[in-house]
Amino acid sequence: MTPLPPDRYFRPDPAVRSIALTLYAGIADLPLICPHGHVDPALFADPDARFGSPANLLIIPDHYVFRMLYSQGVPLESLGVPSQDGTPVETDPRAIWRRFAEHYPLFRGTPSGIWLRDTLSTLFGIDEKPSADNADALYEAIDAALATPEFKPRALFERFNIEVLATTDAAGDPLPHHRAIRHSGWTGRVIPTFRPDAVVNLDTPGWKDHLDRLSAASGVDIYSYATFIEALENRRAYFRELGATATDHAALTAYTHRMTEIEAEGMIQRALAGKSLRGDAAAFTAHMLTEMARMSLEDGMVMQLHPGSLRNHNASVHARFGLDKGADIPTRTDFVYGLKHLLDLYGNDPRLTLVVFTLDESTYARELAPLAGHYPALRLGPPWWFHDSLNGMRRYFDQVIETAGLYNTAGFNDDTRAFPSIPVRHDVWRRAACDWLAGLVTRHLIDEDDAQAMAHDLAYGLAKRTYKL
């Protein structure tokens, strides 16, 4: 690999590239606002925590990486991905790294390829492409760096200039790592995000166990719909005490609907007895999304909703390795009719902030941009997951901003478990934003003052304001 060019990801048109470079220079060093992600808070609870091996840092926790390798026949167990059914997995991090390096060409032209290349270069000073020939040498270089104090998680947090990092945490999580961070005296701001999916979605495997954990954490004996709501409100309050400003909700569809308390009570009682009827789970989730909006209106927490992913599509991988193993597949999503009930109830109240994400790009211009351009409560999240890419970002800017307006979007979030990729992901977004804005300037749609203000908001201000950070 050659050293990273300073004008990377900008269009070759000299006029656009010149303006983009100027815009980028004004925002490149802004602090990182990370309002939505999946980094393990345990990394920051212990001041002496370390990342472990290069494989533990860059491969094993990153489903973007191992899903690509798996798609080409590389077994997950050979990559050290932990199994839950007793399947033996590779435990030698050097062997895992070699296997990754041998298959590095698979990442050519992909977002993961960009993130990996830029991380190796900017974090470790490595400008060689991993390969079978240099795998051991690169491993040694990265391993040696990880053994130094400068590469402890807290030190990297500060080096990355992270202003705030939000994790994602189950409703029944007692949050011991967040408590430890809060009481340690460290100034890094790591906050939880309230995610109640495991108890709100009645068809969650082990739902009753998750409910028991919610009961234990809240101190509320859950035996009815009223006590269920009480326990959730109790936990939301506790999350807020530890700095949380947002909730997070996944659902297969965007369908929302308000039930009566009698109907909700019946569904809870059937679920507690293990006798849920067909359709109960979808109806209860739809109802609880409106309840979560009602709670957010009352306690001020930002509500994030990301429907449209069929989780664990690969049944074999799910059985052997569990959740979040790269087999979640996008589905078509109807936002116009799906969200209507929730928006009828709360969409006109600016005290609510509902951030909606989608994996169905066909809805950007047809549904989401018009909705966000009208309802005071609604904001659009950034291009997400499969669309967190240069092309995905460009499509998003082109399809959303004209109708929704920039200030009805929520800025950027990295949505990652791979902590070292965070600054790279933000950098790609900032460069894509500056490239897009430069195109508007050269076509005289905005002037350079507007472009600089918009670049600052896309990099920093929108996320900070949307998530009340």
Describe it for me?
Strand 10, helix 17 and strand 11 form a beta-alpha-beta unit. It is globular, with a radius of gyration of 22 Å. The chain has two domains: 351 residues, Alpha-Beta Barrel (TIM Barrel); 101 residues, uronate isomerase, domain 2, chain A (Orthogonal Bundle), CATH 1.10.2020.10. The mean pLDDT is 96. A four-stranded parallel β-sheet has the order 6-7-10-11, covered by helices on one side. Strands 1-2-4 form a three-stranded parallel β-sheet. It has a two-stranded parallel sheet with strand order 3-5. The chain is an alpha/beta fold and 469 residues long. The longest helix has 21 residues. Helix 14 runs parallel beside helix 16, helix 17 packs across helix 18 and helix 19 runs antiparallel to helix 20.
Relevant CATH superfamily of the largest domain: Metal-dependent hydrolases
Q: Indicate the mean pLDDT.
A: 96
CATH second-level architecture of the largest domain? Alpha-Beta Barrel
Q: Helix count, per DSSP?
A: 20
Shape: globular
CATH third-tier fold name of the largest domain = TIM Barrel
The number of domains is 2
Q: What is the CA-atom radius of gyration, in angstroms?
A: 22 Å
Percent helix, as a range, is 40-55%
Strands of the biggest beta sheet: in what spatial order? 6-7-10-11
Please provide the count of β strands.
Answer: 11
Structural class: alpha/beta
Main sheet properties: 4 strands, parallel
How far is it from the N-terminal to the C-terminal residue, by CA? 38 Å
- CATH classification, class level of the largest domain: Alpha Beta
How much of the sequence is in beta strands? Answer: 5-15%
